[in-house]
Specification:
The complex is a heterodimer. By secondary structure, chain A is an alpha/beta fold. Chain A has two domains: about 170 residues, 3-Layer(aba) Sandwich (Rossmann fold); about 60 residues, no CATH class. Chain A has ten helices and ten strands. By secondary structure, chain B is mainly α. The longest helix of chain B has about 40 residues. The chains are: A alpha/beta, B mainly alpha.
């Protein structure tokens, strides 16, 4: 379980996060939604240690990420898998090398063990045929899947996905959502997804948090979200003409 | 001042907790090829022509009958060893290697590749930058020795083929009044310049934020700042070591 308490962050005096608190349970797909510039990505970065919050703490199964020694922080980091928005694949390495990279750097496994694990992860995301290709030779959807394979190669306890559907067509987007959901259920990972995608919200959002101008305005499950009375969330949800008509 | 302070803090992070030695060895070899071997062609072209032009222009200016013509070769040799090979070669390398390092790291930064390393708990500056700095410090002196050799050879070819100096005079001139210490001085310069070019360019690239435009700006700043630092260090080394 991940628990965030009173996370506050400001850049050059501008408040981006205004004391966010939440709990993300093990084995659940947790979604953080909101419009552009509401602080979703900053919150994610605070949780994974890329941006240090000005106040508050982030607890990983009770271990305080920002108030523990470096060894503990390192061990928490090794339990994280992160899927970045653009995949963040290393351009100079093949798909296979990208997935193997955390194993090469952080473990002392034999070459055979690493190969076996990489093959399993690539097969899990359906990319065993693309192992020898360079990131520049594969599509956006494939890059996301390689990013997922790299994120799960170390058997993470926590999976963070920053806009996994951005730049993808609706069909590929659904496939990526399904893959993340399957992996979350299969390995009982605590998954946190930052998204704008309403399809993801309705399909895989087991626990949803809505951010608006750095504040948490709503939290709940996907079956309740359309019944919300929060005007900002209603505006966000029904900004799409089709959804608005369906609601009416 | 804050940028200079940030630069020194950045240098400190290179020697923070690192990765396995085998990882660094592999990275160092990759960088030696990327920085050193891939620069041989441009260094060869520049050095040969600079040596050739130095010979022709020195001969053009030495018209006094009381100065022996072999002095042309002596001047070409000393110019090559003391200044042209180490400084001009490193300025050329600042353009080629510096811009390459800054744009590579800048692109890695804006495409979140550096963030990916940091999230894995890898010391990204040490993993990415330290091998580049060490590779530059190792390969630049070799390139400069190669450059000095080709510069003197260029002078020989230009001088003898155009008839401004005979082969005998040239060979006599390049051995006349030779000071072996100058070779040591020639090797110290690229060692220092290599450090400056690789670390300044890495610093500029590593802290790029924004998009493609900022990567281009970082690359330009890396080359400009590297060239300025080379010229300042060149002067200081000359004052200190000669």
């Amino acid at each position: 379980m991940i628990e965030i308490n009173n996370i506050y962050k400001a850049f050059n005096g501008k408040e981006v996060l205004k004391g966010i608190s939440a709990q993300f349970k093990k084995g659940e797909t947790n979604l953080i939604i909101g419009g552009s510039g509401t602080g979703k990505s900053v919150l994610l970065k605070c949780m994974i240690g890329l941006v240090k919050p000005d106040q508050g703490n982030v607890l990983y199964n009770g271990r305080d990420f920002y108030h523990c020694d470096k060894d503990m922080q390192q061990s928490i980091r090794r339990e994280m898998g992160v899927l970045f928005q653009g995949g963040a694949l290393f351009d100079s390495k093949t798909v296979e090398e990208n997935v193997r990279f955390p194993l090469d750097m952080l473990t002392s496994q034999s070459a055979e063990e690493k190969q076996e694990r990489v093959a399993f992860c690539l097969q899990r995301v359906g990319l065993e045929q693309a192992a020898k290709r360079m990131p520049s030779e594969i599509s956006g959807g494939m890059k996301k899947r390689v990013g997922i394979a790299r994120a799960i190669v170390m058997n993470p306890a926590y999976l963070f996905c920053d806009e996994p559907n951005s730049g993808l067509d609706p069909l590929t987007s659904v496939k990526i959502d399904e893959l993340i959901k399957e992996i979350t259920d299969e390995y009982q990972i605590t998954t946190i997804i930052i998204t704008h995608d309403m399809n993801s919200v309705m399909e895989i959002g087991e626990n949803i948090m809505f951010l608006y101008q750095g504040d948490k305005l709503w939290e709940g499950v996907n079956t309740d979200i359309t019944k919300t009375t929060v005007p900002e969330l209603k505006e966000f949800l029904f900004s799409n003409k089709l959804l608005r008509e369906m609601q009416e | 001042m804050s940028v200079i302070g940030k630069y020194f803090i950045f240098l400190g992070t290179l020697f923070g907790k690192g990765e396995k030695l085998s990882v660094y060895w592999r990275r160092l070899m990759e960088e030696c090829v990327g920085i050193g071997v891939s620069s041989i062609f441009i260094v060869a072209i520049v050095s040969t022509f600079i040596g050739a032009v130095s010979c022709i222009q020195t001969a053009y200016n030495l018209v006094s009958p009381i100065i022996p013509i072999s002095t042309v070769a002596l001047i070409v040799r000393d110019m090559e060893i003391l200044e042209l090979a180490p400084t001009i070669t490193c300025i050329v390398l600042a353009g080629k290697v510096g811009s390459n390092i800054a744009s590579e790291l800048g692109t890695m930064r804006i495409t979140e590749q550096i963030d990916a390393l940091e999230v894995m708990g890898i010391n990204s500056s040490s993993y990415l930058v330290l091998p580049k700095v060490v590779a530059a410090m190792l390969t630049f002196p070799m390139l400069v020795i190669f450059s000095a050799f080709l510069g003197i050879l260029g002078g020989y070819l230009a001088g003898t083929l155009t008839g401004v100096i005979t082969e005998r005079d040239y060979l006599y001139g390049i051995r006349d009044s030779f000071v072996p210490y100058n070779i040591f001085f020639m090797c110290v310069k690229p060692f220092v310049f290599g450090f400056l070019i690789a670390s300044i360019s890495s610093f500029k690239g590593f802290f790029t934020s924004g998009g493609a435009l900022e990567v281009g700006k970082a690359s330009t700043q890396a080359v400009t700042n590297s060239c300025i630092s080379i010229l300042i260090a060149d002067y200081l080394l000359a004052q200190l070591l000669l």
